[in-house]
Design brief:
Mannose-Binding Protein A, Chain A, 3 helices, C-type_lectin-like, four-stranded antiparallel beta sheet, C-type lectin domain-containing protein, 142 residues, CTDL_fold, 8 strands, alpha+beta
């Protein structure tokens, strides 16, 4: 094959991550609380995954999660509103039926991989779940 083919298959991401646009994603199967998951992603140079549009949603739910199980993403409620850990504005959501429920003690968001595949659920932050890390070369708008 030509060098052009080789260049197309080289990933800009570190080992274990999958490339999509300006981002690299990785599912970590070892369950952690939301806060510990965020700390682990930050130690890798990223954050729990933010999802900015429907294409990113489809990629993360279909290619990254692949039906493995519910996983933390980087959305969390602070006071009355939800924010992404990486500073991106919340321009897109994919809440499941009846979500967000705003139940006491809930406020961290996970993505479903089975029932209501790909939809989001606000849940207790101290539950242990697998998680999706994202390393991005993009920067959030001011």
């Amino acid at each position: 094959m030509s060098c052009g083919f080789r260049q197309l298959t080289n990933s800009p991401c570190r080992e274990g991550y999958v490339s999509w646009k300006l981002n690299c994603y990785r599912v970590v199967e070892r369950p952690e609380t939301w806060e510990r998951a965020q700390q682990a992603c930050a130690a890798q140079g990223g954050n729990l995954a933010s999802i900015d549009m429907s294409y990113d949603q489809a990629f993360v739910s279909g290619v990254v999660l692949q039906g493995r199980g519910d996983a933390w993403i980087g959305l969390r409620r602070k006071s009355a509103s939800y924010t992404w850990t990486d500073g991106w504005p919340v321009l897109f959501t994919q809440w499941g039926p009846g979500e967000p429920s705003f139940r006491p003690g809930e406020g961290c968001v996970s993505m479903h991989s089975s029932l209501y595949h790909g939809t989001w659920n606000d849940t207790r932050c101290d539950d242990a779940k697998p998680y999706v890390c994202k390393i991005s070369s993009g920067t959030p708008p001011l």
